[in-house]
């Protein structure tokens, strides 16, 4: 337990350290190349750090409060002779993380990336200090932040179904974030070397920035899993379609255009675009198959087929007495 707590604290501290480090590096680039008009970005970085700390404390407080209530309920179920459910089965800090990520992306990351790559990215050159390479490393902090954020705020057991879902989604999001950083690299080239039309430059920046927002959907999906509910078919399809239409297809098309029209080397991420699109299309197919997650008796939430039994007693209390009796009898049968 102590080891688990220590790793959690270390993960959260690393999140804050990386957040501050990335903000400081990007601020230096902005002030150095965009004059003192960019000093305002320091204030936005401070606001984001405060929001992250606030969300971490709020998530922890809500988690401990919920865990305490669930433990009391578990003890009562044990006393009544009902099956015991692990107290932490559906408690997690993940449901609040989308607030922190949305603030980080909308207040600092996207505005700073847009200014840098629109105004002076092609002027950085190959300098060892404050050149292109340091900027790339700073941007690569973003996928690291996402992984640390998710893994320091959940308590899913190793090899459990929820842990598999967490790992799958977080790994996919990390690759997509790296994909966006990779596509921005073409904007480091000077206009003399590569004369891109303004529309294509804007498209590259726009789709990269849109991809920075999309992990919010992943965090919302993970928060649903943390509550033991299964996503509705519409939510799963929306998630998959978003990553096909806003990430993999546009970035893949841009890479083909750069290859065919501007003789640029093809990035290995074009393979990732094809594979990821196929995987998401298969997920859509799986989501639309006849066998769907069962809806709870109250009709409010959907639960995975293997989880529905654990929620029958909980939902029965919300139904009229006759309906509740019929539901419990049908479950036993």
From TrEMBL:
Membrane spanning stretches: 12-32, 38-59, 94-117, 204-225, 237-260
Cited Pfam families: CECR6_TMEM121
Keyword Cell cycle: no
Superkingdom of origin: Eukaryota
Keyword set, alphabetical order: Membrane, Transmembrane, Transmembrane helix
Cytoplasm recorded as keyword: no
InterPro entries registered for this protein in UniProt: CECR6, CECR6/TMEM121
Family affiliation: Belongs to the TMEM121 family.
Name the record gives this protein: Transmembrane protein 121B
Upper lineage: Eukaryota, Metazoa, Cnidaria, Anthozoa, Hexacorallia
């Amino acid at each position: 337990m102590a080891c688990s707590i220590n790793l959690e604290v270390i993960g959260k501290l690393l999140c804050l350290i990386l957040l501050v480090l990335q903000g400081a590096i990007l601020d230096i680039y902005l002030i150095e190349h965009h004059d003192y008009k960019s000093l305002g970005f320091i204030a936005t970085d401070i606001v984001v750090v405060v929001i992250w700390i606030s969300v971490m404390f709020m998530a922890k407080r809500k988690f401990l409060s919920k865990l305490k209530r669930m433990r009391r309920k578990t003890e009562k179920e044990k006393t009544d002779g009902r099956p015991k459910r692990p107290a932490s089965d559906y408690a997690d800090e993940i449901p609040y993380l989308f607030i922190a990520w949305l603030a980080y992306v909308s207040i600092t990351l996207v505005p700073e990336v847009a200014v840098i790559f629109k105004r002076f990215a092609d002027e950085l050159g190959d300098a060892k200090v404050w050149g292109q390479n340091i900027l790339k490393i700073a941007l690569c902090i973003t996928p690291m932040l996402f992984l640390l954020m998710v893994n320091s705020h959940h308590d899913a057991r190793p090899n459990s179904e929820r842990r598999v879902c967490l790992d799958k989604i977080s790994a996919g999001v990390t690759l997509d974030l790296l994909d966006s950083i990779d596509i921005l690299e073409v904007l480091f080239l000077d206009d003399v070397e590569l004369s891109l039309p303004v529309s294509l430059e804007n498209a590259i920046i726009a789709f990269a920035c849109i991809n920075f927002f999309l992990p919010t959907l992943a965090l919302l999906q993970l928060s649903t899993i943390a509550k033991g509910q299964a996503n509705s078919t519409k939510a799963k399809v929306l998630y998959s379609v978003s990553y096909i239409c806003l990430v993999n297809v546009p970035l893949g098309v841009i890479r083909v255009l750069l290859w065919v029209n501007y003789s640029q080397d093809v990035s290995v991420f074009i393979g990732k675009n094809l594979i990821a699109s196929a995987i998401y299309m298969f997920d859509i197919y799986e989501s639309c198959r006849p066998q769907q997650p069962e809806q709870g008796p109250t009709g409010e939430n959907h639960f995975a087929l293997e989880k529905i039994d654990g929620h029958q007693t909980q939902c029965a209390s919300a139904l009229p007495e006759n309906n509740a009796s019929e539901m419990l009898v049908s479950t036993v049968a």
